[in-house]
Specification:
Length: 228
């Protein structure tokens, strides 16, 4: 817990190894540690795209396909992209899956109508490069919907959330999957820049109407924007 967080190529290797390890029980741990709220958050994420039926959606860091399935249920056409082979091997979705780094997407310019990403921004080595790739891959007017953890604003709730996220979640993860991985995940929030800085970075990448919405009293956040 006291070891410094990795950066650069070391971070990429550590994240890939971690997600390969926890892939088999990833969905189960998500449901337990969020009390099922992650299902509601994903539905909100897909709904926020506001795109017509049949839109092509890239789900970045798709993991085991939770968001891909929600994208398909909404009438869109999902393509899942993740650089952890273990996650793709454990995926439960009919969507096409591609192993790739989201900072170097293997798609043509303007190929997608929308992009989703669930709980992965803090695991990206270079956020500016990732947002630039999202802008390149989207057609003008395309939409992003990025779901990520957050911290409640109110002091009492923030303290309770911190205790649960930093103390209880590693125990749940350890009991059901891998304690080391689920000890890292709460610490990885430190990789996220302040919200104002994050939104400004997305805007500079080529997005307008960039907005941040807190979900469930601030336990999660949804960031949306439109490709200029």
């Amino acid at each position: 817990m006291s070891a410094p967080l990795p950066h650069g190529p070391e971070k990429a290797r550590a994240v890939r190894r971690m997600f390969d390890t926890i892939a088999p029980r990833y969905d189960l741990v998500n449901r337990v540690m969020t009390f099922g709220l992650d299902v509601r958050w994903r539905k909100r994420t897909v709904a926020s795209l506001g795109l017509p039926a049949g839109a092509r959606i890239l789900d970045l860091a798709c993991g085991t396909g939770d968001l891909c399935r929600e994208v398909a249920r909404a009438g869109f056409v999902p393509v899942g992209i993740d650089f952890a082979w273990g996650m793709l091997a454990a995926a439960r979705t009919h969507a096409p899956l591609v192993q790739a780094d989201i900072t170097r997407l293997p798609v043509a310019d303007g190929a997608a109508d929308g992009i989703t990403c669930g709980f992965a921004l803090r695991n990206v080595v270079a956020l500016e490069a990732a947002f630039a790739e999202m802008a390149r891959a989207l057609r003008p007017g395309g939409r992003i919907a990025l779901l990520e953890v957050a911290e409640p604003r109110r002091s009492v709730m923030r303290k309770g959330h911190s205790f649960y996220f930093n103390r209880v979640v590693p125990k749940i993860g350890g009991a059901l999957s891998d304690r080391e991985a689920y000890s890292y995940l709460p610490r990885s929030v430190a990789y996220l820049p302040p919200s104002d800085e994050l939104l400004a970075t997305i805007a500079r990448a080529g997005f307008t109407a960039v907005e941040r919405t807190l979900l469930t009293a601030g336990a999660a956040q949804l960031i949306t924007g439109t490709r200029a």
